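Support request, please re-run this one:
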Amino acid sequence: MSSFAFPRFLNVGAGALETAGDALDTLGLSRPLIVTDTFMVSTGAVDRLRTALELSGHKPEVFSETVPDPTTTSLQAGIRAVADHGADSVIGFGGGSPIDTAKALAVLGVNNRPMSEFKAPSSFTGPALPIIAIPTTAGSGSEATQFTVITDDATDEKMLCPGLSFLPAGAILDFELTVSMPPRLTADTAVDALTHAIEAYVSKRANPISDSLALSAISTISALVRRAYADGADREAREGLMMAATQAGIAFSNSSVCLVHGMSRPIGAHFHVAHGLSNAMLLPAVTRFSVHGNVSRYADCARAYGAATETTDDADAAAQLVTAIDRLCADVEVPTPAAYGIDAGRWRQLIPTMAEQAIASGSPGNNPVVPTQVQIQQIYADVYGG
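Re-run finished. Output below.
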C-alpha cells in the first residue's frame, strides 16, 4: 500500500498573494508569524503581505532573521518569536530557506525537543502549528512537501526531517513574486525543480500519481527554463515554472528523491552552496551514473523533456536525456565546484565525509543504481572540475 499527501489547498495565479487572509480564514487562524528574510523585507513584499493580513482582520507578526540553509542555531530566535507572538500559525514567505525555517518552527514551537530528533529515518506526525507557504522562487517545491532540511551546527550535517507535520496546510502560488529573480537564481531553481521531477520518476518508490506530476513538470521546465533565464519578465515562462516546481515538489514528496539529493546536502552544509545550485552541479554526472539502472524510466523522462520521440528506442532515448541535461547546464552556465570557487584541497579532504553523510541520508537507497560509498566518492571527484 502507498499513501499520497499534499496541501489542502493551492491558491494559484497572478495576485494570489492577496488571498493570504482568505487562506487563514479557511483554516480558522488569526495570529500568523510571517517567517521570511531581510531581502524580502527590503523589497516591500513583506509589508504588502502584512498590510493585507491586517486589513482582513488578522494579527500578523514578522520574523525576518532566517538565513540561507537554516541551522539549528538560527532557529532559536524564531522559536522565541513564535512564543512571544502567541502564534497560532506560521507563514513561510520567500525561497526554500524561509519556508524550511517556517516548517521547523511550526514543529519546534510546540515541541520542546532538539531538531536532531526529527531527522530521518524518523517521520514526525505529532502536534505542529499550521503552515502556509508562499514561495518567491520556482524550484524547491517546499511549499508542497512533507520535509524540511536543517543543518546541525554541531556536526555540519544537513538533516532531512520528514513527516506530515512538516507539510503545509496550504500554499499560495503567485508567479508575479518570481519575476524579479536574477538569471543565476532562475537557472539554479529551475534545474533544482527538474532534478526533483527526474528523481521522483526514477525513484524506487515512484507511484502512478507522482509519475504523472513528474513527467508534466519535466515537460514544462524543459520548454520554459531558457526563456525565463533569457527574459525574467516572460510571464508565461514564470507562471509555468512556478507550477512545475510545485508539481515536482508534490511528486518527490510522495516518491522520494535519490542520489543527487543525498550528495548535494553535504555540499551545501560544508561549502555553503545553495541547494538548487548544488543539485545542478551534480545532476549531469549522477544521471550518467544511474541511467543504466532503469533505462525505460530515464527514456520516459527524455521523451517528456523533448530530447527523444515516442519512436526512439529506450537506450537511445536515455542516452539523449544525459546529453540534453549536459547541454542545459552549459546553456544556463551552471558552474562546477571549482569554477564556483571551492578550494580543491578542502574538497578532496571532505570527499570521504561527504560520501558517508550522503549514504547516511538514505536518499541514495532510492536510486535506480544504489551506489557504494567508494562510487559516491568518485562522483564527487569527477564533478569538481578544474
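Residues 208-230 form the longest helix (23 residues). The domain at 9-178 is CATH 3.40.50.1970 (Rossmann fold).
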